[in-house]
Amino acid sequence: MPDATLVIRGGTVIGPERSARLDVAVRDGAVVGLAEAIDPPRGAAVLDATGCLVGPGLVDLHAHLRQPGREEAETIETGARAAALGGYTAIVAMPNTEPAIDSAGVAGEVLALGAGCTAEVAVAGAITVGRAGTALAPLGELAALGVTLFTDDGAGVQDGALMRRALDYAKGLGVTLAQHCEDACLAAGGAMHEGSWSSRLGIPGTPAAAEEAMVARDITLARLTGAPVHFLHLSTAGSVELVRRAKAEGLAVTAEAAPHHMLLTHAAVAGYDPVFRVNPPLRTDEDVAAVVAGLCDGTIDAVATDHAPHAPESKEVPFDQAPPGMLGLQTALPIAWEVLSPHLAPERVFALMSAQPAAIARLTATDPRVGGHSAQGGPVELGAVANLCVFDPAATTVVDPMQLASRSRNTPYAGRTLAGAVRHTVLRGEPVVIDAVAQR
Hints:
alpha/beta; Urease, subunit C, domain 1; TIM Barrel; 2 domains; seven-stranded mixed β-sheet; five-stranded parallel β-sheet; 21 strands; 28% helix
């Protein structure tokens, strides 16, 4: 074994099929040793992982980093720091910035800002120019830069014919379109889920059908074109069932769910606190149960944060006037662990947050065009790039908005104690978080 410069001691290494108590040795950014006991050579850094799980670094398919244009809410640097503190070693920046990421120039700017951050930053390109839903963005130009995921997130592509053309074009380019499923006419005016609580509170509601109608349409378009479709932040039982049937048919569809749709329901809006306004909205207990079941049975492929920071003053308005969105990067793994670990083995929980989202975003191999991404989500094995998350399932995370790394404070979990805590994060062999403290 080559002399290590970093040794992670005392943890249980998460494998694709099973886990084992092993120390991990790292040198030159790669895993060079796995053994029951490794004596650190002189000068090597040592991370204590006693009682912890040592898994691949997490990969987030869905983070709003706001830069360029909304730096008062978040920057790429602060978002990447929040990601690292949450155990993430790679994040995909959504294109609803100002200007939108609808050209190689803007994409290149975001990638340049992400270089050297505490998590690797990839970008999703917009499907349409300005995310306006009327003309296709230059998908080929962005694909030539290495962009593999495209979405108008924040809005669904309403024009079915335009979406069909986009899918045909994407299939030829070998890229994936990701849809924010929301029929704008059905959703018009809604600020929360349409149901018993919206009636009780007098807040206009968005029906589950607004999401399900577009999921059904795009499954039909995937069948027609043969192109892959990824469904963002599924939130309803009907959507989950539609995707389950599409997968049984063999269609090339994937899906993600956000932590808040696994844990919170529309009852949380009872106090009219705008921090609970999110899009798609918090749904019913039955919907939450269906999302969790979908994650457990493989219908839903990934947990994605939908990290959506907003400057504090923007949320200090009446509920239906507040912008939708919640912070998510630093709390996602504890929430996923709390919700899923009673049903899934640790290997499955980590796969939902590392290997599977990395495969959807195609971050599984080094690509110097896209920020130099280095084999994200892969197993912890000899020769692998040392992108690692060390998670203590016996610890707890107490959510203090003022202690979060984000520039914003809009977490719905303020004061809540969550199960488990990220202890260390290692990016390409460098500890960027040690004992829950960011190192830069």
